[in-house]
Amino acid sequence: MVLIKWLIDGHRLEERVPLSDARHRKYELEMQGATVYWSERTNHF
Protein backbone atom coordinates (compact mmCIF):
# COMPACT_ATOMS: atom_id res chain seq x y z
CA MET A 1 0.00 0.00 0.00
CA VAL A 2 1.03 3.59 -0.62
CA LEU A 3 -0.12 6.58 1.40
CA ILE A 4 -0.65 9.63 -0.81
CA LYS A 5 -1.28 13.07 0.68
CA TRP A 6 -2.29 16.06 -1.40
CA LEU A 7 -3.64 19.59 -1.30
CA ILE A 8 -6.53 20.73 -3.47
CA ASP A 9 -8.70 23.83 -3.15
CA GLY A 10 -7.22 24.55 0.29
CA HIS A 11 -8.04 21.08 1.62
CA ARG A 12 -5.50 18.49 2.71
CA LEU A 13 -6.55 14.96 1.87
CA GLU A 14 -4.98 11.53 1.99
CA GLU A 15 -5.67 8.11 0.59
CA ARG A 16 -4.11 4.65 0.73
CA VAL A 17 -3.92 2.84 -2.58
CA PRO A 18 -2.33 -0.42 -3.71
CA LEU A 19 1.27 -0.05 -4.85
CA SER A 20 0.27 -1.10 -8.38
CA ASP A 21 -2.18 1.86 -8.60
CA ALA A 22 -0.13 4.54 -6.86
CA ARG A 23 1.58 6.15 -9.85
CA HIS A 24 -1.67 6.28 -11.86
CA ARG A 25 -3.56 7.76 -8.89
CA LYS A 26 -0.87 10.41 -8.38
CA TYR A 27 -1.15 11.45 -12.02
CA GLU A 28 -4.97 11.53 -11.73
CA LEU A 29 -4.78 13.84 -8.73
CA GLU A 30 -2.32 16.15 -10.47
CA MET A 31 -4.58 16.31 -13.53
CA GLN A 32 -7.41 17.44 -11.22
CA GLY A 33 -5.22 20.31 -10.00
CA ALA A 34 -3.99 18.74 -6.76
CA THR A 35 -0.50 19.25 -5.38
CA VAL A 36 0.77 15.88 -4.18
CA TYR A 37 3.15 16.59 -1.32
CA TRP A 38 3.72 13.18 0.24
CA SER A 39 3.84 9.62 -1.01
CA GLU A 40 5.23 6.70 0.93
CA ARG A 41 4.91 2.96 1.13
CA THR A 42 3.06 1.72 4.16
CA ASN A 43 2.12 -1.64 5.62
CA HIS A 44 -1.25 -0.41 6.88
CA PHE A 45 -4.26 -1.74 5.03
Brief write-up:
The chain has 45 residues and is an alpha+beta fold.
Percent in helix? 25-40%
The run of helices and strands is EEHE
Number of helical regions: 1
Largest sheet: 3 strands, antiparallel
End-to-end CA span? 7 Å
Mean pLDDT level: 94
Beta-strand residue fraction? over 45%
Poorly predicted runs are: none
What general outline do the C-alpha atoms trace? globular
Q: Count of DSSP E strands?
A: 3
Strand order of the largest sheet: 2-1-3
Structural class: alpha+beta
Rg calculated over all Cα atoms: 10 Å
How would you portray this structure in words?
With 45 residues, the chain is α+β, with helices and mostly antiparallel strands. The chain is 29% helix and 47% strand. The chain contains 1 helix and 3 strands; from the N terminus they run E-E-H-E. It has one helix at residues 19-31; strands spanning 2-8, 11-17, 35-41. Strands 2-1-3 form a 3-stranded antiparallel beta sheet. Strand 1 (2-8) and strand 2 form a beta hairpin.
